[in-house]
Description:
Helix content is 38%, strand content 15%. The chain has 13 helices and 13 strands.
Amino acid sequence: MKRRVLIFAAPDFFRFIEPQLKAHLYPEVITLIHDPPRLRSAQNSKNSGRDPATANHLWREECLPIARSVSLWKDLSTLGKLVYRWRRKTPDCILAHTPKGGLLGMLAGRMVGAKKRVYHIHGLRYETATGAWRRLLFHVEKLTCSWATDILCVSPSVLERARKDRLFSSGQARSLGAGSFCGIDTNHYRRSNSGSNQGTRSPAKPSLPKSRDGFTFAYLGRLARDKGLEVLAQAWHDFSPHYPNAQLIIVGEADPTDSLPEATFCSLPRVRQLGAIDIHPQFFEKVDAIILPSLREGLPQVLLEAASMECPMIGSRVTGIVDVIQEAPATGILVPPNDAQSLLKAMEQLLADSELCLRLGRQARQFVQEHFERSKVIAELERTYREIGVLPPSSEKVSTPES
Length: 403
């Protein structure tokens, strides 16, 4: 039985999941439509796990640019292209990711008569919007869900919030275990001294100069308002005069759809903005703590990476973050969103207590190994795909698709 399954998503998603899907599912997934791909991380190029001799003729990749922001004419043009392509040979199933990918993918799938349309919710953008814009985002999200036959939420907290907001009908949605669509490779994200009995964090930070007894905090992510960076800037403004040996590293690129004022961190002391750079596991050995003061998340991959590297974490008590930072046993410190003073106190707590940092790091790694190990998450994703009919039952023989 030949199945034609199309995946429609932005490249950020494929930065993590593409190699694993190709490795595990390429006999059944044969067409990929997404934005023009960005450079892949060094990790994925080494750990794709697929056979180059067979992958090319089983997996056909097409590129179709889509706009992240609202653009009526561009979106209508993309929709028309999707319908034209998919009507030539209607896919058995469409898997769509991201709000824009979900909206266009689910609508086009319904128009061409695809029987199985699965929308993957990576976060709820309307959570941090206000007024008419919030209402518009909410109703677009609800409309997208109505066009889907099945919905997969990236984390239990996103599923809970979406149910509370009545985005979809009862029983239409689920999440995978503890969350995530791709998990984390804990063997790749592993401290260099984790196999020893040293029991201490690596002291070397060659690329991040610091003063004696210094402490390095880091933020990794989009430079956007909904990431809570204005709160972080206020907390650092109050924190830095009292701790002259501490520094803050900001890594990420500006988000044009939710722009942050350029001067947010410019006047603050000991703040280094590195821009968009490739993050390798060694980066987490060069910092002392990761801060994610977001106002909303889906399930932050950066926290899974930090946890696997035993790096202490501070995060807001919001959707997505609460699925990674736990309180019992503690895997990090949760603070109320939009609360600069609570964030400041959490930073002081980590700086003053090295034993707490070690304990949080160890417990965080144990937690992600148990719940987010990549092989487990991919196996659960495959099981779910078979259960909802995206893939045939494991007992059914799958023939090789035609190229």
